[in-house]
Amino acid sequence: MIVGIIIGLLKWAVILNVILSWLLAFGIVNVHNQFVNMVGDMLFRITEPFLSRIRRFLPSMGAFDLSPLVFILILIFIEMVIAQLAMRISLL
Fold first, then answer.
1. Which of 20, 54, 61, 67 is most buried (CB neighbours < 10 A)?
2. CB–CB of 23/87 below 8 Å?
3. pLDDT of 37-90, one tens digit each?
4. Which residues pair with 61 in a beta bridge?
5. Burial 46-82 (b: 16+ CB within 10 A, else e)
6. Is the overall model pTM greater than 0.85, yes or no?
């Protein structure tokens, strides 16, 4: 149960980090806003340890960063494995 919540929070952190990076890249959100800076820093600190490890194995795609997509797919796979294990344990 707790693992599922943590995985869900990680998925949302990655999604929010991607959206915020797009908003910053297109100049929709002000970089100098203290709240935006604080949220961006928090999301970066949460997601970057995972994403940086994935980036090591992905080929360079120029401006495209596919590591968030790969990380979300890994999290979904982990969720499915945990759900299958929980179902098998409950059948015992």
1. 67
2. no
3. 999 999 999 999 999 999 999 988 888 899 999 999 999 999 999 999 999 988
4. 64
5. bbeebbeebeeeeeeeeeebebbebbeeebeeeeeee
6. yes
